[in-house]
Design brief:
heterodimer, A: 211 residues, alpha+beta, 2 domains, six-stranded mixed beta sheet, 6 strands, 54% helix, 22% strand, B: 177 residues, Umud Fragment, subunit A, six-stranded antiparallel beta sheet, 4 helices, 21% strand, elongated, Signal peptidase complex subunit 2 (chain A), endoplasmic reticulum (chain A)
Chain lengths: 211, 177
């Protein structure tokens, strides 16, 4: 006759071990080259996206990235097809199709550039949260100036709720990367998390702030 | 050897990986489209060629880069043309020395390299004594000395070519600037 208690305990153990392994993966420290501003900015941008995706209830809207990817791959498809067609047919016959492919490729690329310049600009995160009576939208812009170690993060918050009055909040942090990276380039995720949570709360409160 | 890079690639999200691959494809596509655009503009299937032999010395030496164009006007004696003999892939750059024009516009062309002792009839297909405008890829419009040596070296040592493309590709995939 088996003891139900010990059987239950034996089953629980493997489950606990699996969760521990996952956490170890996630907490692998972020290390970048301290002197490379591009690496610093990319690491922070990536972390912001990860943070808002996992530690808040916002769902990321990938419309800008998807648009760029689709248009990009489409233009490459035209380019590669045009190149392939030019290889397999004699030059004089391939002239029309090659011309069309070249023109389409450049037109699509121009559209891509215009889209990035006019619509995407410096947005790195677009999140939405819908509950039964509110709809919240969070937009995060980041930028840095050349040769400067100051990282600017702008939180834009917009809420439409059933009471009818929309809430709009904006908050900007301008701080040096040195606040979250140590001499070896390791990111202090707790400190950075606090900054992000703080920024979100202030933006949520619905006032316009600049630090 | 590439552990760091592989770990970096694995940490990326699907979209980021797609973006990196796209960056690489865009470089290839842009180069291809610029080349094709140039071919369409000059009306020549291969607008830039490298001289491989010394048969046009002292005008062109092995390793020179030639810029071609193919205007609609008829070929004239004295033009330096790049032509392909039907059935062979390697184009030849020689001068036109003799010409017969028919009223229909069809031209019978005889070529010879400046540095060769005999005309090109020995190079044409057996039984062929003339070439025609369809065989000509383009007329030489300009040239740059020595620059083409890079292409010659890459073709003599193909491992160099693959190594270069391999490293460039890897660099593009990893780099995020």
């Amino acid at each position: 006759m088996s003891d139900p208690k010990t059987e239950h305990e034996e089953e629980e153990q493997p489950l606990v071990e699996e969760i521990e392994e996952e956490e170890e993966d996630k907490e692998e420290p972020i290390k970048v080259n301290n002197s490379n501003l591009v690496e610093l900015k990319n690491a922070c941008d990536d972390y912001i996206q990860k943070y808002f995706n996992t530690k808040t209830e916002f769902i990321q809207n990938h419309k800008h990235t998807d648009f760029k990817l689709i248009l990009g791959y489409l233009s490459c498809a035209f380019a590669l097809y045009g190149g392939y067609y030019g290889q397999v047919t004699p030059f004089n016959e391939s002239k029309e199709i090659t011309f069309i492919c070249v023109v389409v490729y450049f037109v699509l690329n121009v559209i891509l550039v215009i889209h990035t310049f006019l619509f995407e600009k410096d947005i790195i995160f677009l999140g939405e949260k819908s509950t039964s009576d509110t709809k919240e939208r969070l937009t995060i812009h980041t930028n840095t100036k050349k040769y400067s170690d100051i990282y600017n993060v702008t939180f834009e918050f917009h809420e439409n709720n059933s009471s009818g009055k929309p809430i709009d909040g904006k908050f900007k942090i301008s701080k040096s990367f040195g606040n979250w990276f140590d001499v070896n380039g390791l990111m202090n995720t707790e400190l950075f998390d606090k900054e992000l949570a703080n920024g979100l709360e202030i933006a949520r409160s619905g006032k316009l702030h600049l630090q | 050897m590439f552990e760091d890079e592989i770990r970096f690639l694995r940490k990326m999200s699907k979209r980021q990986l797609a973006q990196q691959v796209l960056n690489f494809l865009m470089i290839v596509s842009s180069a291809l489209m610029v080349w094709k655009g140039l071919a369409l503009y000059t009306n020549s299937e291969s607008p830039i060629v490298v001289v491989l032999s010394g048969s046009m010395e002292p005008a062109f030496y092995r390793g020179d880069l030639l810029f071609l164009g193919m205007p609609d006007e008829p070929v004239r004696v004295g033009d330096i043309c790049v032509f392909k003999i039907s059935g062979r892939d390697v184009p030849i750059v020689h001068r036109v020395i003799k010409l017969h024009d028919e009223k229909t516009g069809k031209q019978y062309i005889l070529t010879k390299g400046d540095n060769n002792q005999v005309d090109d009839r020995g190079l044409y297909n057996p039984g062929q004594h003339w070439i025609h405008k369809e065989d000509i890829i383009g007329k030489v419009k300009g040239f740059l000395p020595y620059v083409g040596m890079i292409t010659i070296i890459m073709n003599d040592y193909p491992q160099l070519k693959y190594a270069l493309i391999g490293f460039l590709g890897l660099y593009m995939l990893i780099n995020r600037e």
